[in-house]
Structure formats: C-alpha cells, structure tokens
Write a structure and sequence with these properties.
Elements (H helix, E strand, L loop, with lengths): L3 H5 L12 H6 L13 H14 L3 H14 L1 H10 L1 H8 L3 H7 L11 E4 L6 H5 L8 E5 L15 H15 L6 E7 L5 H5 L13 H18 L4 E4 L4 H11 L5 E3 H21 L8 E4 L3 H16 L4 H5 L2 E5 L2 E2 L24 H8 L3 E4 L9 H10 L4 E4 L11 H6 L6 E4 L6 E3 L2 E3 L2 E2 L6 H11 L6 H13 L3 H5 L10 H18 L11 H7 L7
Parallel strand pairs: 1-3, 2-3, 2-4, 4-5, 6-7, 6-9, 9-10, 10-11, 11-14
Antiparallel strand pairs: 7-8, 12-13
The structure holds nicotinamide-adenine-dinucleotide (NAD).
Length: about 525
Amino acid sequence: MPSGLALLRDPALNHGTGFTEAERDQYSLRGLLPPRVLTQDEQAQRVLTHLRKLTDPLEKFVALNSLHDRNESLYFRVLCEHIDEIMPLVYTPTVGQACQKFGQIFQRPRGLFISANDRGKIRQLLQNWPYRAGIIVVTDGERILGLGDLGANGMGISVGKLALYTACAGVHPQLCLPVTLDVGCNNVEMLQDPFYVGLRQPRLTGAAYDGLLDEFISAATERFPGVVVQFEDFANHNAFRLLAKYRDQLCTFNDDIQGTAAVALAGIFSALRITHGSITQQKMLFLGAGEAAAGIADLVVTAMKSEGLTQAQARQRCWMVDSRGLVVKGRAGLAEHKLPYAHEHAPVGDLLAAIQALKPTAIIGVAAVSGAFTREVLEAMARNHERPIVFALSNPTSQAECTAEEAYRWTQGRVLFASGSPFDPVNHGGKTYIPRQGNNCYIFPGVGLGAIASRARRITDEMFMDAAHTLALLVTQQDLDQGSLYPALPRVREISARIAAAVAETAYRRGLAGKPKPADVPADVRAQMFDPHY
Ligand code: NAD
C-alpha cells in the first residue's frame, strides 16, 4: 500500500478529503490534505453540485473523467447512485461527442493503444499493463455508435463501456482493460483534426488487419488466461466474421450484435405481456440490416423456434429494409448476414411501402437514419395494429428514428415504444407515458459478470436468451402500465446480478465453467461485485 502523495495520486486507492483522521496518520497524509475530513456522502454531494452547475454535457463528461482519474470509488459511487443522470454523460449520447473530440479533451491515458506499428510486439506491449485483466473491451473505432469511423478516438467507447461494467454490475475496476486497435482511419475529418490521437494512415485491410487481430487475441489470452473479450463498434464487414472466427476459441462476444439482440428481445417480451400476444405471431420489420438488425433477428428466430416454429417459418417472420429498400431474395450482392432474411418478394423501395406491403407488428429502427420513422410511417403502423411495437434504437439521440413524443402522438398513445437514447416522459391524451431505453447496459454487464464469476470458457447464444428472459421478468406491472418496457435504470445492479447468476448457471450446466459450481450461485456472484463505498 503506497503512502503520502503516491497514495493520493493512485485513483484506485485515493479517497481524497475522505481519508479519516486515523488513515491520515497511518498513511503519512498529514498536511497533504485540507484539515476537514469529509464523508463520502459529502464528497458525492460536492461532485454533484459542481456537475449540475455545468451546462455543456461535454464539460460534464470531462469533469467526471477527471474524477475517474482521481478517485475511482467516488466516481463509481456517484455513477451508481445517480445512474439515470450520469450514465448519459459517461456513455451514450455524450460519449459520441467525446469520441469525436477525444484529442481535444484528452487528459490522461486509460487503457491500451495497440497500433498497426506494434505488429510483432503485442505480447511485449501487453506486459506494460500492470493488472490481471478479467475483461477487455476492444474496438477498432470503425463504427462508433452511429457516427462512423473515428479511428483511435474510439478509445472513449472502450473506457465508457467498461465503466458501465463496474457501475451496472460491480465488475471490479482493476479487472477492466480498455483496448483500442489503431489500424488507421479512413475519416478525412479525423485525419485533419490537429489533435487526432491516432496514426494518420488509411485503415489496414485484408491479411494485415487479420494478422494484427490474431496477434492481439493470442497475446491477450496468453497474458490473461480466461479473459472475456468483448468486441465493440467494429464495422459490419469485420464484426460478423470476427465473431464467427473467435466465438468457439475463447470467451468472447460482440455486444453490438448479441447484447443488442438480448435487450431488444426482452423489450419485445414486455410488449407481448401488454398485448397478450405470442412471439410466434409477430412479424418484425427492421430498418437497417447491420449488426443490430441481424443480431436481433437471429435471437428472435431462436425465441420463435423455442415456441414451436421451424427455423424457416421463424425467419419468414423477420424482414429487413436497408439503404437499397426491402431486402429480397435474388438481389445481387447481398452480404452473408442478410441472406437468411432475404425472402421471396417483389422489390419494395422504402420503409413506408414495406410497411404497407407486409403489415409488420413491430418496426425496429437500427439504421442510424435520423427521423426515418416519419408521421406517415407511425400512422401506417397505428392503422395496421391496435398496439404497434416501435423501437427507435439508433444512437446517439441525433440519429434516433423518431422521438418518444412523435411515437405517442402519431399513434394516439397506442404505441409500445422503446428507444436507444433517453427521452423524457411524454404527456398524451391526459396520460403520462414513461418511455425507457432499450439500453444494452441492462444486458452486457450482467453477462460479463456471470462469465467472470463462473470463469466461463465460452459465451453462448443460450446465455443471451437467459439474459433476455431474466430482464423481461424483472419488468413490473407498474412499469408496463406506464408504457415502460424495461425496468427503471436504478435497478440495474440488481438486474445484472440476476442475469449474471443465470449466465453462470448455464455455464455450470453446460460444462463451460472453469471452476466447480458453488452451493449458492447468486451469492457467489454477489460476493464478487465491487462496492464503491468507503
Ligand atoms: P451497422 O452499421 O451494422 O448497420 C447499419 C445498417 O443500416 C446497415 O445495414 C446499413 O445498410 C443500413 N442503412 C444505412 N442507411 C440506411 C437507409 N437510409 N435506410 C435503411 N437502412 C440503412 O450498425 P448497427 O450496429 O446495426 O447499429 C445501427 C444503429 O443502432 C446505431 O445507431 C447504433 O448506435 C444503434 N444501436 C442501438 C442499440 C441500443 O439502443 N440498444 C444497440 C445497438 C445498436
């Protein structure tokens, strides 16, 4: 245990003015701190008071980031206890802006940058990380939220996401390793930014890219045996194939594909509790045919199959519209992940026409096309179904397909709505609706915690199905009555603990766990959760 200034400068150990009189004696802190001892409660109040005086979300992001760099426990205490208020500042939507301006607001490095120039030296480079990583969030920055290629600035996403693993599921901060693979950047705006933090060169492709990824994965699993590797914000052309390549080799998942799938499916299960419908009767139309759409569709198909449909019947109930219109069989050049959902149909040019032709029970917006759920689209959904399901999942808020207000207004309050970014409550027809975010943070932290707690060797689709069911079960009748398809965010630690236990149970049952099954799995999971109080 360091003492004196070294202790105050170690964010993992520093309690700042919260060090007690006895600790000040024990660790040679006398004179290095103002005399008055504050409780952690008082410190948290001070942080919040300052934060609430700032008006610009990016300034708040910077203030929180510097707290993270000074006093980790206090940062997580504030984040955990005010998650509704703070999460949008440390993650989406603010993190999008923070990544765009990453170079300008850069304070202190966090995580590992591995660049194209490090080829052949990654094993050595990983030795520079002083802790035993239990979970890595890795991005190559090519598709940050709905904002495109932000190159090495994508580090903001890996850092933010891991902060959520700790805040939402109590994964110990020291187990968390953010990684950015700087393989270059094809975004001219980034490359011309004088403060851009990455290599100013075009992205690696082909064998050079794959070689760097392979070297990173084998070095990381060697240096940190059993580590969970979560792929984050990779572009389509790499995300699907990297998941397919590595999922049977190590404990890995892609949150954009699998986490999104589980959270969306949980929202659909909640909507069905309101309509008393069955998943097998749904017809889903996705706007977008990328990672989120394919992930959700695949998990919906699994859910439909578990309720009696064949794979072919289930797939026939999922349709996609991409930038070229309805995805139909026979269209030239379809990417592999779209093929299962390319059905026999005449070409249809746009979303509205597709809704008129197919009469879907649900539309799921995951194309990052702002405003795509127009008044006409929403009215068409309301004409076709008494309780249309509309999920506007694109992030950040600027990319949302519609606002919550628009969704309720153009369906006369009948919509079953969820969004990717937060929206305020909506008053319509004398009733207040509380739309909630179909936020992946309900899922991935619990899945990660469950994998770490059971030392899982793999993360399977069954675990994501468990996570979706567990989340849906935790939605109360009161939530549903006010139009909320997800539980309140402040319950997220409880939710994550339940999901982690379900994931761990599956790991033990399927022989995928790296340790003997404890007598009480939920208690074993809870015992591993980081508590930010001091
Ligand atoms: P992606 O790049 O893999 O897919 C985007 C898809 O949209 C592509 O198939 C593209 O062809 C399609 N598209 C582009 N322009 C279009 C247009 N004009 N009309 C129809 N389709 C068009 O990205 P993704 O990972 O699937 O994410 C998409 C969006 O969903 C992002 O904004 C992301 O932030 C959001 N998202 C939200 C959540 C959540 O809220 N829980 C989870 C994951 C992703």
